[in-house]
Amino acid sequence: MKQNKRPLKGTRRAQNVVPVTIKQLLNSPEEGLKIGDLDVHLVTVVGVIRSVVADSMKVTYLLDDDTGVISVHNWVDADSDEDSPVAVMESNYYRVYGSLRSQAGKRHVTLFKILPLTDLNELTSHILEVTHCTLKSEQMTTADQTAAQSSNERSSVANPNNTFLSNSMVPMCTDDNMMSHSINGMTQKQRVVYHIIKVTYNSSR
Amino acid sequence: MRVNGRHLAQFIGKPVSIIGEVIKVNPNGMSLEISAVDDQRVIVNLTQPLDEPLFGLIEVRGKAHAKNIIVCDHYLVFPPEFQNSFDKTAYNNTIILLHAFANPFSV
């Protein structure tokens, strides 16, 4: 599932599904959610449904993960062509795929897909994916800056960093970044420590 | 904030979320005892009496009251299939990781 994208400097049309927390969605600036350097449109959240309100045009769910609550709109139009819509029950965990929208200053998510959690380990792995995403994008941002500073214009340097997000649905360890990110064996904590050491070393030169 | 049994002491008065297995239910229906993922016993006090018997894996959300007491606003019961497949070690480590960072979720 690895896509070989030619990297564009700076922003890039986001086609990746990014795991996020509701807090990140609520705190995102008006222009749209950014993780590190990249725009994020398609997100996945795992949370508990607090309420279900149906009206003629849409069904609104209140989705609550531990970091915040957000409304999710499921626009009802030609729903009949799908297989029977998922029964959404309150006080149950669901995984939501959707797109972040802003309406009258308030944020909400337009739903693309909602699925019940099949396994509680999905919750664990979602938390880990979000954390990984945040930290990795910080790492990428710093790495990109370092690459820009040095006169090294090899696109292969930036390339592995940008292909990261195209794998966002795939476990991260398949990445083979050339720029010293061959740290597939490192745990989260080790990567963070490594990153800190690297940044400190670079800034003290 | 997601916590484990041993973190309750640090979060007294703050909203927390904890997952554990029901050990016993108080006959008056106002409190129950759960065993958190790190095998610590936590007492859960409810604001409304239970209307159904609870057993299995549950998640409790509420305020931490004391080292091992939570006052519960909401709880949700997981279906029994979750209990069998749930990897406690992984969840435990995830929580430890969450607490290791100052701001794990925000950019």
TrEMBL record, chain A:
Q: Which residues form a coiled coil?
A: none
Q: Mind telling me which Gene3D superfamilies this protein's record contains? A: Nucleic acid-binding proteins
Is Nucleus set as a keyword in this record?
yes
Q: Does the keyword DNA-binding apply?
A: yes
Keyword annotations of the record? DNA-binding, Nucleus
Tell where it localizes: Nucleus
Checking PANTHER family in the record gives: REPLICATION PROTEIN A-RELATED (PTHR13989), REPLICATION PROTEIN A2 (PTHR13989:SF16)
Full protein name: Replication protein A 32 kDa subunit
From TrEMBL, chain B:
Main subcellular localisation: nucleus
What highest taxon heads this organism's lineage?
Eukaryota
Asked if the keyword Cytoplasm belongs to this entry, the reply reads no
Q: Where in the cell is it found?
A: Nucleus
* UniProt keyword terms in alphabetical order: Nucleus
Q: Per the record, a Pfam family? A: Rep_fac-A_3
Q: Which InterPro entries does the UniProt entry name for this protein? A: NA-bd_OB-fold, Rfa2
Residue stretches spanning the membrane:
none
Q: Which family does it belong to?
A: Belongs to the replication factor A protein 3 family.
Q: What is this protein called?
A: Replication factor A protein 3
Q: What is this organism's lineage?
A: Eukaryota, Metazoa, Ecdysozoa, Arthropoda, Hexapoda
